Prior knowledge:
mainly alpha
Amino acid sequence: MDWAGLAELLRDAAPSMLKGTGYTVLFALASMLGGLLLGFPTALMRLSRWKLVRAPAELYVSAMRGTPLLVQLYVIYYWLPSIGIDFPPVVAGVLALSLNAGAFLSESIRGAVLGVSQGQWRASFSLGLGYWPTLYHVVLPQALRVAVPSMSNTLISLIKDTSLVSVVTISELMLATKEAVAGSANPLPLYMTAALIYWCLSLLFEALQRHLERRLNRAHR
Length: 221
């Protein structure tokens, strides 16, 4: 394929691929938010002294981390309707990504909280603060600084994992690329362009991660 033909191929595919890129970012951000909403209470449950509280959280984390995301997506979108629980494709995709991300984020948060010195807890208790005020005002601000890199890695992974929701016909970047490829005799440039877009998105979120780390480190100092 000559340069003119390549430019025409990319120009024709650009609108649908750019639209798919927008959906990819939205799915990743929505799933990150859902993952945080699930991950934070899960982390606290895993830190509990009571086994009845810890056990459900440990089972959830083990199941989500121990099975492929694609299998989880198939279970939510294709198997749950057989028992009367039916989700639209977008909801199923975001739910699967959120459940998966929540398990990994909970471990990042739990590890960061455990990384805060026990002396911080004892000092707060000696000042009359209870468990929850100590956690909110003293421990979490320090833990957040430690957890940002691993949490950002989860978000970057979500950017790439959104490609899997194409199996439930959600028109994100990968499905848009596949549709463009279907009408082309030369798929390689389109797949290379999609890979470049994923890479650029990852670089963008890496830059945001570094900016957030610098702000948190300045505040800590």
